[in-house]
């Protein structure tokens, strides 16, 4: 077979296969239409009526509207999609602490915050199947100091975390059931001032609405952290050696456990007053091993204004170490929160 | 000569496939595929030429695992399953990942090709392939009577270098697993079984010593159906734990460790399952083990996905081959 013959055979087969795939024009009642006739004009040029077909409709027997032949190639408009009403999203965070509410499936969440201390944080999450959510965040609440007399406590930022939360939505199992979420977040290792630090937090929190305008969040957290660096120890050769100290090395298990929570009040339809109490680790590099990692309470209060269905503005005050009552460290912050159903719509359209 | 003929044949096949794709099915393309019996469900979507791709990709599909534990189910004949997951948190500076390619072999077996790797920031370490086979024991299924399965996973050595001392670790597993489902508690499925592991560790390079042990390890899991698409899955298993201190002259030993995972399996589409979980020491052959469950800083978060490819049904749709 020559090359030319091959091309010819291919073309014929291609054309035949494509042609065979085209649907025949459909007539009334699903009967294929007869081929068109050309004898509507006589040889002398006068119009001639086509031969009568007893099956063809006439004025006395019109075609029912539902059997009118349709052009199979006519352009048909895409069916319009109805906008699905979406419920309001219960936020997975109060101001700085977690809530027991989860994002709906495939809903995106993004929060960006700045404060007067130069802190910039970001928190991005996605809801997984109405029972979980995954997120990546940067925080500025982890702090460090050289020793216990060091009053210049610095923030380590950005501190990048990954989070995964799993739970049951409010009212899901029975009436009055609070939303309950088991959360875990853990940081990537952070190298700052020649010290490698890492934190992790395991939380269990319940959130419940009381009436239309009040919600309460109560939870417990189990913290862990590690710091790796030179703490003054030397090896057998007299060289300074690096060691790792972890929070769970301490003898008192209770030091790792803390309660946290928050309160939401909605005095106006689009405005909320928020208060929360959380905890953040503080590293003290040259303190005793038992004091190298401490948890400090952080109190925040502020307001949330719902600008649009997809956007909230929040502003408030954050006191990083409320236990020391040092209001000079307090920061005023502002943050924007966006939520989006776009991914959910895309997923639904694929289904 | 062969080239033009091959091209011509390719064109014919492609044209036929295109043409078949244009054929009116006479059905509503959005209509769900016809219902199948439970036994047919295990075999994936029906292989019929009149189904649209959309109908084919609606499944049903059945996974053959929880997170890392095999179940009694297999993905089915004419099916392909691609799985992968990864964690940036488990080992500092590394993206640890794992992948599984499973091919349905009849309605009662599947073959697996596993690929576990550690990709560092500066380079790519040697891949660690492995193979496995999973069998569903073909007994009639009854309510509240366990279904049974067997899985074998052949491991390959993982080598780690500690200042000139090579540590080779290897684990091969034989799983006997059961699945229990009771229609009165239809949202819960229990899984359990025993894993028989042959574990070995040996030192090379500047070190010497080895250990080998056959271990009988219980494994258990549960699956809570939160909705049609979302399942909360937990699994816990005993596992071989290698112990050796770098720099030590003592030989390595093999002990018992504990692995646990809790998370969600979400069928974002019928053919795509997203996995997310938190876990305590997923990796078996790992040199930096956590000191206990309170060592939360060494827990990890893993994200993954499983994608089903009903290649038999798609081939039937496109070319008319492999049809029921």
Characterize the structure shown.
The complex is a heterodimer of chains A (351) and B (324). With 351 residues, chain A is mainly beta. Chain A has 2 helices and 16 strands. Chain A has helices at residues 3-20, 342-350, and strands at residues 108-115, 120-128, 132-139, 143-145, 154-155, 159-168, 179-187, 190-192, 195-210, 214-234, 240-246, 257-268, 271-284, 293-308, 311-319, 331-340. Chain A has a 12-stranded antiparallel β-barrel. Residues 23-46 of chain A have low confidence and may be disordered. Chain B has helices at residues 2-22, 38-41, 53-56, 311-319, and strands at 80-87, 94-105, 109-120, 128-136, 147-154, 158-162, 165-181, 188-205, 210-225, 230-243, 253-269, 272-280, 300-309. A 12-stranded antiparallel β-barrel of chain B has the order 1-2-3-4-5-7-8-9-10-11-12-13. The two termini of chain B are 36 Å apart. At the A-B interface, α1, β6, β7, β9 and β10 of A face α1, β11, β12 and β13 of B.
**First-last Cα distance of chain A:** 48 Å
Rg of chain B, Cα atoms, Å: 23 Å
Approximately how much beta-strand content do the residues of chain A carry?
35-45%
Describe the biggest sheet of chain B? 12 strands, antiparallel, barrel
Structural class, from helix and strand content of chain A?
mainly beta
List the defining traits of the structure above:
heterodimer; A: 351 residues; mainly beta; 45% strand; B: 324 residues
In short, what is this structure?
Chain A has helices spanning 3-20, 342-350, and strands at residues 108-115, 120-128, 132-139, 143-145, 154-155, 159-168, 179-187, 190-192, 195-210, 214-234, 240-246, 257-268, 271-284, 293-308, 311-319, 331-340. Chain A is mainly beta and 351 residues long. The longest helix of chain B has 21 residues, at 2-22.
SSE topology sketch:
The complex is a heterodimer of chains A (351) and B (324).
Chain A: H1 3-20, E1 108-115, E2 120-128, E3 132-139, E4 143-145, E5 154-155, E6 159-168, E7 179-187, E8 190-192, E9 195-210, E10 214-234, E11 240-246, E12 257-268, E13 271-284, E14 293-308, E15 311-319, E16 331-340, H2 342-350
Parallel strand pairs in A: 4-13
Antiparallel strand pairs in A: 1-2, 1-16, 2-3, 3-6, 4-5, 6-7, 7-9, 8-9, 9-10, 10-11, 10-12, 12-13, 13-14, 14-15, 15-16
Chain B: H1 2-22, H2 38-41, H3 53-56, E1 80-87, E2 94-105, E3 109-120, E4 128-136, E5 147-154, E6 158-162, E7 165-181, E8 188-205, E9 210-225, E10 230-243, E11 253-269, E12 272-280, E13 300-309, H4 311-319
Antiparallel strand pairs in B: 1-2, 1-13, 2-3, 3-4, 4-5, 5-7, 6-7, 7-8, 8-9, 9-10, 10-11, 11-12, 12-13
């Amino acid at each position: 077979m020559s090359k030319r013959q091959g091309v010819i055979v291919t073309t014929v087969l291609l054309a035949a296969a494509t042609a065979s795939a085209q649907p025949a024009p459909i007539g009334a009642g699903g009967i294929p239409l007869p081929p068109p006739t050309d004898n509507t004009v006589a040889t002398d040029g006068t119009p001639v009526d086509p031969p009568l077909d007893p099956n063809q409709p006439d004025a006395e027997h019109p075609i029912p509207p539902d059997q009118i032949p349709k052009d199979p190639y006519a352009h048909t408009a895409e069916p319009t999609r109805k906008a699905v009403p979406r419920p309001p999203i219960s936020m997975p965070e109060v101001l700085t602490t977690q809530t027991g509410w989860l994002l709906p499936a495939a809903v995106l969440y993004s929060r960006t915050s700045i404060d007067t201390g130069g802190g910039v944080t970001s928190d991005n999450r996605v809801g997984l199947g109405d029972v979980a959510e995954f997120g990546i965040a940067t925080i500025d609440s982890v702090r460090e100091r050289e020793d216990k007399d060091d009053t210049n406590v610095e923030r380590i930022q950005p501190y990048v975390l990954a989070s995964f939360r799993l739970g049951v939505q409010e009212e899901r199992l029975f009436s009055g059931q609070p939303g309950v979420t088991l959360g875990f977040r853990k940081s990537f290792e952070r190298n700052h001032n020649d010290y490698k630090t890492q934190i992790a937090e395991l939380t269990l929190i319940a959130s419940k609405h009381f009436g239309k305008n009040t919600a309460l969040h109560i939870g417990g957290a189990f913290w862990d952290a590690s710091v790796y660096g030179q703490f003054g120890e030397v090896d057998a050769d007299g060289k300074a050696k690096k060691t790792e100290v972890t929070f769970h090395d301490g003898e008192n298990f209770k030091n790792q456990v803390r309660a946290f929570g928050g309160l939401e009040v909605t005095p106006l339809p689009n405005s909320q007053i928020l208060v929360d109490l959380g905890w953040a680790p503080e590293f003290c590099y040259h303190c005793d091993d038992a004091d190298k990692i401490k948890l400090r309470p952080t109190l925040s209060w502020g307001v949330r204004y719902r600008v649009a269905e997809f956007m909230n503005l929040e502003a408030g005050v954050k006191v990083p170490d409320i236990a020391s009552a040092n209001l000079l460290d307090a920061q005023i912050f502002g943050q924007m929160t966006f939520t989006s159903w776009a991914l959910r719509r895309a997923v639904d359209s694929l289904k | 000569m062969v080239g033009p003929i091959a091209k011509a044949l390719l064109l014919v096949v492609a044209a036929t496939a295109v043409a078949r794709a244009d054929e009116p099915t006479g059905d509503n393309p959005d209509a769900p595929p016809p219902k199948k019996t439970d036994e047919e469900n295990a075999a994936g979507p029906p292989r019929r030429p009149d189904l649209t791709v959309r109908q084919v990709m609606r499944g049903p599909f059945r996974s053959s695992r929880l997170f890392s534990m095999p179940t009694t189910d297999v993905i089915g004949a004419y099916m392909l399953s691609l799985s992968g997951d990864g964690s940036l948190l488990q080992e500092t500076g590394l993206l640890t990942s794992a992948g599984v390619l499973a091919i349905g072999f009849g309605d009662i077996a599947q073959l697996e090709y596993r690929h576990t790797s550690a990709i560092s920031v500066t380079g790519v370490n040697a891949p660690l392939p492995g193979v496995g086979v999973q069998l569903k024991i073909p007994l009639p299924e009854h309510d509240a009577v366990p279904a049974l399965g067997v899985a074998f996973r052949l491991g390959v050595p993982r080598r780690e270098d500690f200042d000139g001392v090579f540590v080779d670790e290897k684990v091969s597993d034989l799983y006997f697993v059961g699945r229990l489902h009771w229609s009165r508690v239809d949202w819960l499925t229990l899984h359990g079984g025993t894993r028989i592991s042959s574990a070995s560790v040996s030192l090379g390079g500047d070190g010497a010593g080895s250990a080998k042990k056959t271990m009988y390890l219980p494994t258990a899991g549960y699956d809570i159906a939160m909705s049609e698409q979302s399942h909360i899955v937990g699994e816990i298993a005993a596992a071989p734990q290698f112990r050796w201190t770098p720099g030590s002259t003592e030989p390595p030993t093999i002990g018992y460790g504990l692995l646990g995972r809790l998370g969600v399996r979400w069928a974002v589409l019928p053919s795509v399952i997203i996995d997310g979980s938190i876990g305590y020491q997923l990796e078996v052959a790992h040199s930096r083990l956590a000191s206990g469950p309170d060592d939360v800083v060494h827990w990890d978060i893993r994200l993954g996905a499983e994608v089903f490819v009903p290649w038999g049904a798609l081939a039937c749709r496109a070319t008319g081959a492999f049809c029921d």
